[in-house]
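INTERNAL AUDIT FORM
Audit reference: QA-55
Scope: verify that the stored structure record matches its stored sequence.
Auditor: D.O.
Record contents follow.
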Amino acid sequence: MKEIIKNLPLAKQVLEIKKELAMMRHQADRQTRVLQELFVQQLKNTPKYNNSKHLIHYESQVYSQNGEDGIISEIFNRIGTTNRFLVEVGSSSGLENNSALLILDEWEGLWIEGDEEACEQAKRNWNEAVRSNRLKIVPALVTAENLEDLMEEKKVPVELDLLSLDIDRNTFHAFEKMARFRPRLLILEYNGVFPLPSNWGIGYKAEEGWDGTHRFGAALKVFEVEARKKEYSLVCCDTTGTNAFFVRNDLVEDHFLEPFTTEFHYEPYRQFLVREMPYPKVPPA
């Protein structure tokens, strides 16, 4: 029956149109990727980035949303690792986050995600790591009040190597409240829509998430000021203007490019640079 339908003139035309549309989409995706790469290369050639210490040169993407995988790898290449323990808050299904590549490299860790279905997907996607107890996945709505309690409950080391925090509206408030843990590397989602001088931040509402608008989190300067109080230095932002990277002051030495300020390291939100992978992200095995 399928062969008979395929031989009908109208059906043939429909199939040809579908093929042509698929080809057009493929070509458009390739052109978009080329334009993205050209923009990034031109950006790297400007004076601000003309130094091998600048972490923008190390961006690469496997499981991260943007170039975070490469930046994380290079930061630990410079400061070394200790317990190889990570926590990611807002870990989703485990196929697009900041720490999946580290789990693949035999790190231990804790993922906390507010979406229970995403947690179940993550457990299936990373079944081996979960079964061997290298990775714990906890469904929980993280607030400024319970973040460190959740970490203590799961016996997270006080000086873990990495904490990645992305809870949309309340990311800054959870970071501000943090006092008991001292990660060596912090990755914090900031609001790159707000320009350099801005001290904007949204008010705290523990039970509320992102409403789909530009009203979430806080401007980078707000994070930088709080990080300084906690003895961290801003060492980089990814080129899409999504995540900021903070290294604990006692580890900075001469490994990173100064000045460690918003005025130098800020990247505006560049939605047009969000890169779709040329192939689907899949579980490790």
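Auditor finding: record pair retrieved intact. Residues 2-34 form one domain.
Action required: none
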